[in-house]
Specification:
The chain is built from eight helices and no strands. The two termini are about 35 Å apart. By secondary structure, it is mostly helical. It has one domain: Ferritin (Up-down Bundle). It is globular, with a radius of gyration of 17 Å. Helix 1 packs across helix 7, helix 4 packs antiparallel against helix 7 and helix 6 crosses helix 8. The structure holds fe (ii) ion (FE2) (2 copies). One fe (ii) ion binds next to helix 3, helix 4 and helix 7.
């Protein structure tokens, strides 16, 4: 596979595909791309009650997404296809941070401090230890962890889009839902550039089960995106 084969699907022409993915996740247990455990829909109600908190957490999620892409580019600077694919994502994620911050300013909110992301920390802890010393194995896991975070974010943005009362906020979250779905597919496609398809598929399936287990140990909080 070459970079030209990567499906850069953040454009609006793929909204139908993305919407299909996001709306089918609750029943997609057998899909290679489907999250195993749907978020409790009541989470969106909790989030609407603590809007400033959820926006702050969201802003920092976007900042961390940009930072993680930059660190992967630095770590794997010898892989030009990876650098080419991730460079525009840095710009998009930082653009997302700015969108969230603009929304907060409009509402008279301050940014607040960065919060501990328990979900992401628990996922990172599950990375197989025996593979941590091998840079290429780490790359596979890091790309798939990023794909999981993007997929779960997409699902939560869909819940906000569908359940919030404010039409402007519903539109706001729709844009994030589409963009993060594109990123999630992109991370898996980048993994396919460097690892055999079977290996990517098996490792992705393992991460989907692992993510389900992690979520079962977390209580959904209205002040957290994850
Ligand atoms: Fe983003
Ligand atoms: Fe993203």
């Amino acid at each position: 596979m070459t970079l030209q084969n990567i499906r850069l699907i953040s454009g609006s022409h793929l909204i139908g595909q993305v919407t299909y993915f996001c709306t089918s996740m609750s029943t997609a247990e057998n899909s290679i791309l489907g999250l195993k455990m749907p978020t409790d829909p009541r989470w969106a109600d909790l989030a609407s009650i603590s809007l400033q908190e959820i926006l702050t957490d969201h802003a920092f999620c976007e900042q961390k997404a940009a930072t993680t892409c930059i660190s992967l580019i630095s770590r794997y600077a010898d892989k030009p296809d990876l650098v080419n694919a991730l460079s525009p994502v840095v710009t998009e994620e930082w653009g997302h941070f700015r969108m969230v911050w603009a929304e907060m300013k409009k509402r008279g909110y301050t940014l607040g401090r960065q919060r501990k992301d328990e979900y992401v920390n628990l996922l990172m802890e599950r990375e197989p230890k025996q593979e941590r010393g091998a840079p290429d194995e780490r790359l596979l896991h890091r790309l798939l962890i990023m794909a999981l975070i993007e997929a779960r974010s997409c699902e939560r943005f869909r819940l906000l889009h569908e359940n919030l009362e404010d039409p402007a906020l519903r539109d706001f979250y729709y844009k994030f839902m589409v963009s993060e779905a594109g990123h999630y597919r992109l991370m898996i496609d980048i993994a396919g550039l460097y690892f055999p398809a079977d290996r990517v598929r098996e490792t992705w399936a393992w991460w989907l089960k692992t993510e389900e287990d992690v979520l079962q140990h977390l209580t959904p909080r209205g002040d957290r995106m994850h």
